[in-house]
Amino acid sequence: MKQTALRSPYVVFAVLIIVLTVSFPLALRAEIYKYVDKDGTIHYTNTPTYTQSKEVSLPPLNQANFRKYFPSYSYGRGIRPATFYHMNQAAYDLNIKQICSLYGVDCNLVKAVIRAESGFNPSAVSSKGAMGLMQLMPGTSRDLGVSDPFDPRENIDGGARYLKMMLDMFGNNTLLALAAYNAGPEAVIAWGGVPPFGQTQLYVKRVMDFYDRYRY
């Protein structure tokens, strides 16, 4: 999960709300550029950030072609969430219920995010450094006051608050809030919707699938 560090979080939040209000209706679809760095990691951006970037057109994303376009993507320590959730998904229900009640967030949505992010593995660490159940980035953890992102309750508290901020920012549009949780609110604003990044699109689909299962 990519998260924006919330330095002076309320100021940043207010600024983004203004930018969203002004820019969101005017956002245009743009080209997608692909760049492979020296380590072989593939990057997709909406601007030719690197001199070697090449404009590409991605086909509709599905499970079959996901690894082709995002070979370095991993869950936690390279382990897919499915290996964890069967025995762990009920272990945090009480914390999720209490925290969601406090912040006014749907418990089923938070539970779906946890399942997609870490597979209910509180020790999960992504290749980019995201930590814990809701995969909080170090900067986000600091700004949210999460002293120990591997503590389940602290992590859920911080992740639920961040998700609530995204929901408020995007008018309680669940799809946009999830895209912002994964790719950052700036990307959602820049693209005027869910960004055309394969990882983000698959993430949103996965969370919504889990969300529907928990609701019904």
Explain what this protein looks like in three dimensions.
The chain is mainly α. It has two domains: 9-30 and 61-215, Lysozyme, CATH 1.10.530; 31-59, no CATH class. The chain is built from ten helices and three strands; from the N terminus they run αβββααααααααα. The chain has helices at residues 9-23, 63-69, 85-88, 93-103, 107-118, 138-144, 152-169, 174-183, 185-191, 198-215; strands spanning 32-36, 42-45, 54-56. It has a three-stranded antiparallel beta sheet, with no helix packed on it. A hairpin with a 5-residue loop joins β1 and β2 (42-45). α1 (9-23) runs parallel beside α9 (185-191), α7 (152-169) packs across α8 (174-183) and α8 crosses α10 (198-215). It is globular and about 50 Å long. The model is unreliable at 17-31 and 60-86 (pLDDT under 50).
Give the helix tally: 10
So what's the CATH class of the largest domain?
Answer: Mainly Alpha
Distance between the ends = 26 Å
Estimated share of beta-strand residues: 5-15%
The number of distinct structural domains comes to: 2
Q: Indicate the CATH topology of the largest domain.
A: Lysozyme
Category from helices, strands and their pairing: mainly alpha
